[in-house]
Amino acid sequence: MPCRGLCEKFKATKPKGIGRYFSGQKRCTTCDIFINYEGLWCPCCLYRLRSNPRATMNKLKLRSNKHQNVMEPPNAR
Q1: Among 37, 55, 59, which residue's Cα sits nearest to residue 46?
Q2: pTM of the complete model
Q3: Residue 10 domain boundaries
Q4: For an engineered disulfide with 12, which of 25, 30, 42, 55 has Cβ 3.0 to 4.6 Å away?
């Protein structure tokens, strides 16, 4: 099913300092945009959203960022 333009209301802006996937954005390859949406399927074209990068280097960067945030100790004061 082609893009019907419904995804424009979920369109995401690029975050500064961190990657799109790390900030929780997902990409619809049919509509060709990044969106802020909690579901697994695009609300516009009903195709599956991509929540991880395709390039190997970007996958490694995303994994290392997630691992660093999980391993950080909480501030005890």
Answers
A1: 37
A2: 0.71
A3: 6-71
A4: 25
